[in-house]
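Can anyone check this?
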Amino acid sequence: MTRTEFLDKLKEALKGSLSDREVQENVEYYAQYIAEETRQGKSEEEILSMLGDPWILARTIIDASDGTDRETVYGNGQDTAYTQYRTDRRYDQQKNGGYEEEKRRVHILGLNTWWKKLLLLLCVVLVIAVIVSFVTGIIRLLAPVLIPIIVVLLLVRIVKNRHE
């Protein structure tokens, strides 16, 4: 697939779900992204394979248009919904005596949709259920031993208090 084919498919996939202005902004963004990566020495094929299927990328953009942070969408296409790129500047005297920019992946998993909130709630309930079953299992195992010991200790204390 060429850059033009990729951008045409992306545009086609976005039409109807976003406004014309938003479609154009997204297509322009990815056109600039591809051009920038090409200037940095990557092949067009490598960039397009990194971005992945334009239909999946479009679905991610459409899903994120409900208020997700734009930086979340404009990352690498394979795990676009969960990854953003952050540029760090660090001082590197050995290479060029100045600052060097470095891209790092930052994983984001926001609770911006109802199913993510439901999934989190189910996980919390599951963890609580496991803890409760673990504690009751321990009590069930120790009860046959602990109850007679506690009863004997109480009887000894009662008998001891009566003798005093």
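Reply from J.R.: I decoded it. The first strand starts at residue 83 and ends at 92.
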